[in-house]
Write a structure and sequence with these properties.
The complex is a heterodimer of chains A (509) and B (227).
Chain A lengths: L1 H17 L1 E2 L2 H21 L3 H5 L8 H4 L11 H20 L3 H17 L8 H15 L8 H9 L7 H7 L2 E2 L1 H22 L2 H4 L2 H7 L10 H4 L3 H21 L3 H22 L3 H10 L5 H13 L5 H23 L5 H22 L14 E2 L2 H8 L7 H4 E7 L2 E2 L2 E2 L5 E3 L3 E8 L6 E9 L4 E9 L5 E7 L7 E9 L2 E11 L9
Parallel strand pairs in A: 7-13
Antiparallel strand pairs in A: 1-2, 4-8, 5-6, 8-11, 9-10, 9-12, 12-13
Helix pairs in contact in A: 2-5, 2-7, 2-16, 5-6, 5-19, 6-7, 7-10, 7-16, 10-14, 14-15, 15-16
Chain B lengths: L1 H24 L24 E11 L4 E5 L24 H10 L6 E12 L6 H7 L13 E9 L4 E4 L3 H11 L2 H8 L25 H4 L10
Classes of the chains: A alpha+beta (509), B alpha+beta (227).
């Protein structure tokens, strides 16, 4: 039995990595990933000189690791030329023109420019994209839906072997796609470990504070979600469970559908709540690696069977095809673009890029009668900045002081201003770490601000929450009360609330 | 041959990814080499309750102070509306940014450069309408928001580091610990001489970058970039 299993095991692994298939999934990733990266490249191109060249302020990744960078800092014009080449090679990769060499050029240049700017270019999404570009470079993703495939079709003489052989010619080993799939699984598993290392992730603090910044981009929902910390705690647990399970369940059937659907939702939420835009797009592109040949064929059959239902799509596409038919026919007459044509394009783009950037004059040094003067700072402002550090005001360590009745994940979730006699009132002080060991008291004051009850507690430096509990029984008269947060005798915050008769009491009826 | 090469690549690739997971899980040499950044998946490993900005100030021979970043031509905004220098969380590139500005401007001789951090609680970033839903008090005006400044690095005119200090958050953490009288007594015991950078004038002792510095008291999370 053991022998049987062990003899089967290698063949399963071999089948997993070396099954022959038409690389539809990798072709989809090849089409879309370079376009996503191109968004960033186009946005950064005018600043390439400043960010990546010796004529600016590059920030090599090695600097942050306390090491000397082995990468050369290129002169400004050379950096701009190469950055332009990166842009055009990404376009060529997407179109599938000299696919492999385009992908290799893209990958090498993308990696170089990322390594030259660790403060505003290299991020985890660019690392994932670099891995994906490596896998794409090693794959035969240019065999379908590419200019290369179209050229090959033109160059090959008509064959009598039929369509099946044509399809078989397109088949290649699945291992680059498998590597990309495994990479995604590893990334999510690693991300789960990061969360396990971050205690504040599980009480929602980490997410809440990230959602209060536009450090990535501005976002639509983040700030609003900070109002409902219970949802943050719930999502935190869902996300970590999904990240751990992904690599085990993503391979087939409902598990794959469920994991990928959750992934799409997760990344969409990172856009809406954290302002990540390129990261989700890069991840969506890598998800194409889960499209196998059988999946594509199934989708194609499904679509063909419902062509009538998709007439709203089919009709305009057919019309467009008919209208552009003449262009394809004319293109078929053109001489096949050669290596020389490809190389010439890269050189032309590099030269054009340098020339355009020269006229753009990013530092404004060539404008007539312009010499840049340093901006003098207001001495008062400078004095404020350079004075010795001001001790932290205790009031500034308090994020909020809330009262309610229910905790979820250690966070008060129902902030209220009205309670009934006999109800337990929870007061919570949310603190902004780091802070010193503090002594806080939460005192109960009546409507005339007379102190009725005092409860103090030490809040150690590692605590981000301090809780107090009050039960106002029927011995307390109904009316207005205050819970007052104090430190060292000074009032920090107060919450007013109304005490109403207990349910079922004579007064309550 | 082709298959053998492919198999070798697969094994090496999966070993590298697995090492990253192992290293990250056990916090083993995660920041030992830039290559680790490519296999350790520590997205959003750090967080802070305070927003942070970086100022680069130059002191001229005349005693006047100048803004060295951004340069007069403006600054790159790599993501949203935040300038590039603010993503330099450790202020290590600030000297380079200043040198680029000095290189392309006319100015009096610069004697020193200061890299200064500015911090404020993130809750003040909330827009007015969200603030009104969350807090009872009205949102303070921008000039009323408490801001804390801290010198991070002092550099000479050619960008050489003269003095470096812990960042403001580390300073707060250090201060909280050093304010313990028993700990202070233990630190003094048995030492004929000890160096304290009396940074805040309170006598609590803001420690410099070496000796009792941030490295001993701040938990290093993930890569040095901290994402």
């Amino acid at each position: 039995m053991t022998t049987s299993n062990s003899s089967k095991s290698p063949s399963k692994i071999s089948q997993f990595f070396f099954a022959e298939e038409v690389p539809y999934g990798m072709a989809l990733a090849r089409i879309f990933l370079p376009l996503v990266l191109l968004i960033v490249i186009v946005q950064r191109w005018p600043d390439a000189r400043e960010i990546y060249s010796a004529d600016g302020a590059p920030a090599s990744l090695w600097t942050h690791y306390g090491m000397a960078s082995p990468l050369p800092e290129l002169p400004g014009s050379v950096a701009v030329a190469l950055f332009s080449v990166l842009g055009i090679s990404l376009i060529c990769s997407s179109l599938g023109w000299y696919t492999r060499i385009s992908l290799v050029i893209s990958m090498v240049l993308y990696l170089y420019f990322n390594l030259m700017d660790c403060i505003s270019t290299i991020t985890k999404y660019s690392v994932i994209a670099s891995h994906a570009m490596l896998c794409l470079s090693l794959s035969r993703c240019g065999d379908v839906w590419s200019i290369d495939a179209w050229r090959r079709k033109r160059e090959q003489p008509a064959t009598s072997l039929g369509d099946l052989s044509q399809i078989n010619l397109l088949k290649s080993s699945a291992w680059p796609r498998r590597c990309l799939q495994l990479l995604i699984g590893y990334v999510y598993f690693g991300a789960a470990i990061t969360k396990m290392h971050t205690p504040a992730y599980f009480n929602g603090d980490q997410l809440m504070y990230w959602m209060m910044t536009n450090y990535n981009f501005s976002h639509m929902l983040g700030e609003y979600l900070t109002l409902v910390p219970s949802i943050l705690v719930l999502f935190a647990y869902v996300a970590i469970v999904w990240e751990v399970l992904f690599i085990f369940l993503c391979w087939r059937g409902w598990g794959r559908l469920f994991m990928l659907s959750l992934g799409v939702t997760f990344h969409l939420m990172t856009s809406l709540t954290l302002g990540l835009y390129i990261f989700p797009l890069v991840c969506y592109c890598t998800y194409f690696s889960f499209v196998g040949e059988a999946d594509w064929n199934r989708f194609f059959d499904w679509f063909a069977g419902r062509k009538d239902k998709f007439q709203f799509l089919v009709t305009p596409i057919s019309a467009l095809r008919e209208r552009t038919q003449w262009a394809f026919e004319r293109m078929a007459q053109w001489p096949v673009p050669s290596w020389a044509g490809f190389a010439s394009l890269l050189v032309c783009v590099a030269v054009f890029g340098v020339e355009a950037e020269y006229h753009l004059d990013p530092y404004g040094l060539r404008a007539e009668d312009t010499t840049h003067e340093l901006k003098e700072l207001n001495p008062v402002r400078v004095a404020e900045m350079l004075k010795t550090s001001t001790p932290m005001n205790v009031k500034d360590t308090v994020f909020a002081f809330d009262i309610g009745t229910t905790f979820i994940g250690g966070t008060l979730v129902d902030r209220r201003s009205s309670f009934r006699q006999g109800e337990q009132i929870h007061a919570q002080c949310l603190l902004q770490p780091p802070h010193a060991d503090l002594f806080f008291e939460v005192n109960l004051h009546d409507a005339e601000d007379r102190v009725i009850e005092e409860i103090g507690q030490v809040v150690p430096r590692e605590a981000s929450r301090a809780n107090w509990f009050y039960v106002l029984t029927e011995s307390y008269s109904t009316g207005t009360y205050y819970l007052v947060l104090k430190s060292a005798g000074r009032e920090i915050a107060r919450q007013q609330f109304e005490l109403q008769p207990a349910r079922g009491s004579v007064l309550g009826n | 041959m082709k298959r053998w090469l492919a198999s070798t690549f697969i094994v090496l690739y999966l070993c590298a990814l697995s090492y990253g997971i192992f290293s990250h899980a056990l916090s083993f040499k995660t920041g030992s080499h830039p290559a680790m950044y490519f296999v350790v998946w520590d997205m959003f490993c750090g967080w802070s309750a305070y927003s942070h900005r970086l100022h680069v100030v130059g002191e001229g021979e005349s005693g006047r102070y100048y803004e060295l970043a951004p340069g007069p031509w403006g600054e790159v905004q790599p993501f949203g509306d935040l300038e590039r220098r603010h993503y330099d969380v450790r202020g290590l590139v600030a000297g380079r940014l200043a040198a680029n500005t000095l290189d392309k401007t006319s100015h009096e001789p610069i004697t020193r450069m200061f890299v200064v951090e500015e911090w404020w609680p993130k809750k003040y970033n909330l827009p007015e309408n969200v603030w009104a839903l969350r807090f009872d008090d009205p949102k303070p005006l921008p000039e009323q928001i408490p801001r804390y400044y801290k010198i991070r690095h002092i550099l000479d005119s050619d960008g050489t580091m003269l003095k470096t200090f812990p960042n403001w958050v580390a300073h707060l953490r250090n201060t909280a610990i050093y304010s313990n009288p028993r700990l202070q007594a233990d630190m003094r015991r048995g030492k004929t001489f000890y160096a304290v950078q009396n940074g805040d004038g309170s006598g609590r002792g803001q420690m410099g970058g070496s000796g009792y510095g941030e490295t001993t008291l701040i938990r290093q999370v993930g890569s040095p970039l901290g994402n």
